[in-house]
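Revision sheet: structure tokens.
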Amino acid sequence: GQELDASIEGKSAPNMIIDFGNVQHLSSAALGILITMNSRIGDMGGKMSLSNIRPEIFEIFRITKLDRIFTFHETVKAARDEMS
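Predicted:
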């Protein structure tokens, strides 16, 4: 959380892409951090995208209805293309 926070500190309209390619487990604490970051980035006029998510991890977003507030892309490249 602190690293993500530091990466947008002092930037106007920051864009962030988080690659979930190596994520095998997602805790409720991590979900909370993602929700906070998405909100902060949006408030700053930026965008946050989540990419490369395994189906079992995406299911967590779907069940919690968080798939409605996050932007998802199959690849980091697809996320970059949308943000540019």
